[in-house]
Design brief:
seven-stranded antiparallel sheet, 2 domains, alpha+beta, 38% strand, Pnp Oxidase, Chain A, 338 residues, 8 helices, 19 strands
Length: 338
């Protein structure tokens, strides 16, 4: 048995470079994160869009970028545009690139949201041979998976690049007469100082609930409460919950009076102005009504496993992060209120 286990470890190290990290890896990051910069290239001088872009849908794989409404690129300009993700500090090494093809345009106050599909995607977080081995493994797992979501090799590569940028996981509070819910959200980003955008699977309960309720509160999650947020993912499949039965204390948000976690380090109340269909998802555009900044510190965040392997190799994190990720998934992180 020990011989077989050691052989598997040796093969894993040779083929994949060590641990097979989950594709979705949980870490702590101060916000706004200062680790990865996202640059838009091909539309004038390179522009930092780190804080005004985000994923839009899974099938097809799309992402959005915010532009000023009086400076929207034309078709010829969009055909030349790409995203480059790189270290913000140090050697500013390029971590990944995405070629872009425009698909939709939506208004967002004084901004416009342009939705793109990737026409190319390259990750530099692993040597090319190891990335090819991971790609083969992903295809094998996808063929065996009962899930109806099937991504092309290009879409898999694009998601690995897109989630090189650390993305916070916050908790949404929403209520209307007769029902209420609280659930985690991470497919989101600012559009500008007054507007916010996020995506949810269109056919699922949270998207339909928010489309009806139109108002919600978004609570930032400190890292020590990460297992709480992870456990509340079960509410994505529940029509309604009792705020009073939540396993942690809550308080009322400032203007809308929605129950929000007492541990939240930041609470923003928002009103949804539009709901836009983008592939498998609904892309929501919301206006910020209030913003309470209550504490600093690392927030519960998610990155791609390829980038976490890169972080460990380059001293940005340690191997103990693998155990921390597992503890979050198990709901047993020390200090969490459960």
């Amino acid at each position: 048995m020990d011989l077989a286990r050691n052989l598997r470890r040796t093969v894993k190290k040779i083929a994949f470079g060590g641990e097979l990290l989950p594709l979705r890896f949980f870490i702590g990051q101060a916000q706004p994160q200062q680790e990865v910069a996202v640059w838009l290239e091909g539309f004038g001088p390179p522009r930092d869009v780190t804080r005004c872009h985000g994923p839009a849908s899974t099938v097809p794989c799309t992402l959005w970028i915010a532009f000023d409404r009086d400076r929207i690129p034309g078709d010829a300009q969009c055909a030349r545009m790409s995203l480059r993700l790189c270290e913000r500090n140090g050697n500013r090494k390029t971590l990944g690139t995405l070629g872009l093809t425009r698909r939709h345009t939506f208004p967002a106050g004084e901004s416009a949201i342009l939705v793109f599909e990737p026409r190319s995607a390259v990750s530099y977080c692993h040597p090319r041979l190891r990335l090819q081995m991971h790609s083969l493994l992903q295809r094998w797992r996808q063929r065996r998976s009962p899930s109806k979501i099937k991504l092309s090799p290009l879409e898999h590569r694009a998601m690995s690049v897109l989630f090189t940028c650390p993305r916070p996981i916050s908790l949404v509070s929403v209520a209307e007469p007769g029902r209420a819910s609280m659930f985690p959200l991470n497919v989101m980003s600012d559009v500008n100082d007054r507007y916010f955008a996020f995506a949810l699977t269109a056919c699922k309960i949270p998207a339909q609930f928010l489309a009806n309720a139109r108002r919600f509160a978004l609570s930032a999650t400190p890292l020590d409460q990460a297992p709480v947020a992870f456990a509340l993912a079960a509410n994505h499949n529940v029509p309604s919950i009792d705020f009073g039965a939540l396993p942690f204390p809550t308080r009322l948000s400032r203007e809308l009076g929605l129950a929000v976690p007492a541990f939240a380090s930041r609470v923003r109340e928002m009103e949804i102005e539009s709901v836009n269909t983008v592939g498998s998802h609904s892309l929501f555009v919301a206006r910020v009504l209030s913003d309470e900044r209550l504490a600093d510190g690392p927030e519960f965040s998610v990155i791609h496993g390829f980038y976490q392997a890169w972080r460990i190799r380059h001293g940005l994190d340690s191997a103990t992060s693998i155990a921390r990720d597992a503890e979050i998934r198990a709901g047993s992180l020390a200090g969490a209120t459960l």
